[in-house]
Amino acid sequence: MKKGLKTQLKIDETSSSELNGYNFAYLDEGTKRMIRRAILKAVAIPGHQVSFGSREMPLPYGWGTGGIQVTASLIGPDDTLKVIDQGSDDTTNAVSIRRFFSLTTGVKTTERTSMASLIQTRHRIPETPLRPGQIIIYQVPIPEPLRFLEPRETETRRMHALSEYGIMSIKLYEDISVHGRIATAYNYPVLVNERYVMSPSPIPKFDNPKMDRSPALQLFGAGREKRIYAVPPYTRVRSLDFEDHPFRIEKGERSCALCGSQESFLDEIITDDRGTRLYACSDTDYCQQRHMEGQRGSSPGIPLLAAKRFQRKD
Amino acid sequence: MMMNELITVQDLRKYFVLHLQGGVRLSVLNKISLSVYSGECLALNGPSGSGKSTLLRLLYSNYRPEGGVILIKHRQEWIDMTTAQSRVVLDVRRKTIGYVSQFFRVIPRVPALDIVMEPLLRLGMPRKEARERTEGMLKRLNIPGRLWAISPTTFSGGEQQRINIARCFVMPYPILLLDEPTASLDAVNRRAVMELIREAKDRGAAIVGVFHDEAVRNAVSTRMMDMKPAEGIP
Amino acid sequence: MASEDHPLLRATKVTRCFGKRVGCRNVSFDLWPGEVLGVVGESGAGKTTLLHCLSGHWMPSSGTVSYGDGKNGLTDIYEMAEPRRRYLMRTEWGFVHQNPKEGLRLRVSAGANVGERLMACGLRHYGEIRKDVLNWFHRVEIDQDRVDDLPSTFSGGMLQRLQIARNLISKPHLTFMDEPTGGLDVSVQARLLDLLKGLVSELDLSVVIVTHDLAVVRLIAHRLLVMQQGEVVEAGLTDQVLDDPQHPYTQLLVSSVIQA
Q1: Confidence label for A307 from pLDDT (cuts 50, 70 and 90)
Q2: Does residue B233 lie within any of the structural domains?
Q3: C224 pLDDT more than 50
Q4: pTM for the predicted model, two decimal places
Q5: What single string gives the DSSP state of each residue in B105-119?
Q6: Of the segments A121-135, A298-312, B89-103, B108-122, which one has the largest average pLDDT value?
Q7: Which of B20, B62, B108 sits opposite C240 (nearest CB)?
Q8: Structural domain that includes position B63
Q9: Quick check: helix, strand or coil at residue A108?
Q10: In chain B, which residues have their Cβ closer than 8 Å to the Cβ of C243?
Q11: Number of independent structural domains in chain B
């Protein structure tokens, strides 16, 4: 409450040319308060989906309206914001969202994971481990992990309430019977705090372990579906599996062509029209840090590409 | 009641109301009373329509009486079959009363051997032992081995009757109700059945039967009861 | 499991109305373990309504349905907490629908359909689930090769057998069946009935089976309820009711059967 008042004063002090006529972070204060209430409730019940009054945002559903609303409710003048899309700070969407917040808050932005207080992400978790005090906000398309087998909202709510998660096992069973292993590659369902089954958003299953007992606060926003859910710091997050088919991340033999990392999640990049490809870290910040420390991969000498990737835009 | 009395019937009345024929009432039994003891074979005598088969069916609880009491000694206890709960009646049929009816209702598709074995398996007898006993019984009744795995639907009347009998005698029931057990049988098989009845008597079973064949009746029964068609309107 | 002092299922004056229309009225009976109770009567007699009231799907307008759970004695199933009732519906009770498509997940493999109850009970070992599933395929005489096929590729008779396996795999104490042989070819019906008869005796199942086909109850039911216009007009052992029908409607029903 106090912070809100302080912000209010600061806003009045700030010239309108800086905020371009918008309220701080675009949303009105009443909406922010409503969303914060939803966030508190979500934090109190880890993994449980909380309804909220999703507002019309200046971009269509499916482009991150949920994540943006959560960020907008939390961001303050002292925050430092990082926005990534598929791990990269410089894709169109990440750039647009970052510019949106610059425009409506004047808040400092960064590409360095370690320097951000708020990180909004689509479909990846940064490689750099998060610290206590950091908040990561995931953009979520379909918050309901049971939706694929049970189309009725009334029924899925009941199933969560009564912990009836048998059908999740059916999905995993089907995978094993068809593919010989659990084939879900992303949006791999997890059990939060030993109670609620949750969709971690379409992050690759490679990232799932990072969610377990993370020191950071993890928030999830789905704008079109109007749901917010949360995983408080140090909460147990377990990926669902079978006893005889335990959850495993397959480590390939590849390493990043630019920085040589064998630990990070790699993107496949086609470099010419003859199908030549190389693999590079999906997390651009992480790759750049390693490169600056002198780590090199097998093809560091693709100067044009490397330069493009590491172009800093503060 | 004496120690070895197994069946007691008092003032039994049975009539049928045929609703589909204008509610016509057919009285069959009018205040029948009787007792049957262990080791006895009581033969019911009388013309057609005197209620002999009906009485057997009443004793088996296949028919329900309009009046009177039917008491059966079941595992040291007296059960009133007219008021007993369904599961008790079913238990009595499983363990105490064996019934050979006049018309053998064939259960389709079940092999003859399984039909005869079923009463034993139902009581938990191991399959091997049940099979041995069943095969022995079928041999006694001259059912050839090639028929054992076949459903009796295609059997002759006499063969079907012998399956019916085998199923009843394979278990040592304390009470046997026999309705024309030798009706469709030739001399050889008649003798086999008479032998079975004699053995049952010797081991203390109480038997109530209807035997049209006078020779058979005289040979197996220890007592006779005359029955007349019921008089008057109930 | 019921003990000696109380039945497995007790219906007391079960009545279910739809506005002014009576579905079923004043139905009372006890069902003990190992008993098969047949409910017969013409269409519209209230049999299916009764079945849904007994199985926890529809709450009666008046009257009670109590389930005999070994530990707690008889408990009114509609007084139970919803999680418990739903749990019982997934484990200790089975329900075989007349149309097997209503009782199966059509977009999921046959094997997953049969294994679902095991998974819902917390079994999380793929190998064991699969073994149990294949065992049941064998028991209901479905080719084990079909275990990963979708139900849409199965015939009507096979779907019904699949539904039966899906229900019985959790070894329910009490199973409800709504015209399980309805709509099937005569020979397919016969095979299904034989299967049911075998499973009933092998697993000592307690069943309430609704049907309009007297041949079905003659074959597998120990006891019968005859319903007409929502009420039970006659009750007793199957052979009692069919051989010595007392009520006019029962006599009509029995005499109407055409012998093959």
Answers
A1: low
A2: no
A3: yes
A4: 0.84
A5: ---TT--HHHHHHHH
A6: A121-135
A7: B62
A8: 5-226
A9: strand
A10: 57, 62-63
A11: 1
